Amino acid sequence: MNALAGQVALVTGASRGIGAATAEALAAAGAHVILTARDARLLEGVEQRIFDAGGAATIAPMDLAEADAIARLAAALSERWSALDVLVHAAAILPGLGPVQDIDGKGFTRALTTNALATQTLIARFDPLLRKSGDGRFVFLTTSVAIDPRAFWGAYAASKAAGEVLAMSYAHEQANIGRVRVAVVDPGATRTDMRAKAYPGEDPQSVKDPAVVGAAIAGLVAGPFVSPHRLRVNHAA
What does the domain layout of the chain look like in residue ranges? Predict the structure, then answer.
């Protein structure tokens, strides 16, 4: 239960779904978790659940797409903590589904910003703190369509594929020169708002709860996984 005691973790997209579940699982394992997302009210709810369970958390509301937001967050964290042990990039944008020729440029740009560009910026800004950990771990949440393209999913798949490539390239670079381990996690079918948006006719109870994925990620970062690592969470609800 205290596998991550004394460690500091940052989770993006921590206001709901897989991000919130991951934050709660990391806190339950003993980490102090920094929660970031756009909705401060929802973040406060996650923070309270962590407190009620005996854990420790700090909220940092922000929009990953906002200029310099990640840089400001990294500066704030470095003033309070000497190192960052775990960074989980769970935030993601699902643009409208449709044919490639009909992709909405505005929605696609926002997805690219959060799913891909923010991935690189997070790595750039937090790499120094992750290295100072001595065993820093970076986890990127991906999707099966990033490596197995599907009709009408082109915009989302492309944005997540770009983020995944950045994460895996970082992993190979760190294998030779750094001390940061990297894992790419495909959560599979999970009961989230994003899933409901993509599959409006699906019975939510037919897919697993986000807590299953959160527990899998917490277990992964608490263990000695070899970087780069890929995990697909297939457990039933």
Answer: 8-232
Give residue 67's pLDDT band: very low, low, confident or very high (50, 70, 90).
Answer: confident
Catalytic residue among 140, 153, 156, 170: 156
Residue with tokens 């944005």: 159
Write b or e for each residue in 22-44: b if 16 or more Cβ atoms lie within 10 A of its Cβ, otherwise e.
Answer: bbbbbbbbbbbbbbbbbeeebbe
Exposure string for 192-218, b = 16+ CB within 10 A, e = fewer? bebbeeeeeeeeeeebbbbbbbbbbbb
How far is it between the farthest Cα atoms of the chain? 50
Closest CA to 70 of 10, 14, 20, 23: 10
| pLDDT for the residue numbered 236 | 56
Helix (H) or strand (E) holding 59: strand 56-59
Kindly tell me if the per-residue pLDDT of 190 is higher than 50: yes
152 φψ region: left (φ > 0), alpha (ψ -120 to 50), beta (else): left
- Decide: 5 and 37 in contact? Cβ < 8 Å: no
Checking if the pLDDT of 39 tops 70, the result is yes
Q: Is the dihedral of CA 127, 132, 133, 135 positive or negative?
A: positive
Question: Does residue 199 carry a catalytic annotation?
Answer: no
**Would the pLDDT of 44 be above 70?**
yes
pLDDT at residue 237, as a whole number = 44
CATH architecture designation of domain 8-232: 3-Layer(aba) Sandwich (3.40)
